[in-house]
Amino acid sequence: MEWTIQQVARKAGVSSRTLRHYDDLGLLRPSSVGANGYRYYDPTAVARLQRILLLRDLGLSLDDIAEVLDRSGDEEAALREHVTLLEAERDRLDRRIDAVRRAVEARRTGVDPSLDALLEGFNDPYRDEVVARWGERAYQEAHDWWHGKSLREQVDWKRDTDELIAAWQDAWRAGGSPGADRAQEIAARHVRWLGQVPATPLADGDRERSAEMVRCLAEMYAQDPDFADTYGAPEVAAFVRDALLEHVRRWG
Question: How confident is the model at residue 177 (pLDDT cuts 50, 70, 90)?
């Protein structure tokens, strides 16, 4: 079974000139050429055209598309790659739609939507680490929980977070020890704050894994430069770590 260049162009929504251009580039050869010079395309050629158009819609250049197709000898593997690319594109569009919706809501409510946390999601930057430590469910449910919040609810969460950070900074400046009552009260508050995030060990009530989670985060606070910036200074982040580790130790 073969179709003429005009039939394929019409069904694919492209021009015959485009298909001839793809032929000139070696990107899409017709399956046969008639004595009259007409190009014909069989199902294999049409499937390749479909892949070309999908990759083009994803923004790849023709040179990049050629490279992808040349690397894809296995048709099933190539189709799986297409699915992956389309899912990534869907996620990108979902994020853009979400950003526009939040901009609309910000105009309506008068809330400043410029905070990074409102734009990139709750735990998106740490996806790989969250999945590795606590599983895909922990990441996805936390992600959905965050994106399910209204802009006002996200701002309120950010405000509570800022207040918690300020409490840690005040406790450190006061010169108390990580094991002192004030620091341990903030540590308990910090753990309750973490427990609001669904599908985490704290939210699930898994005591052993909760202790592991808090210890892991405590060490991250002191080791990751981003968290040192969050708490204002490496010394404060280390204070938070020591207080949280002591808090978990007292769980027994």
Answer: very high
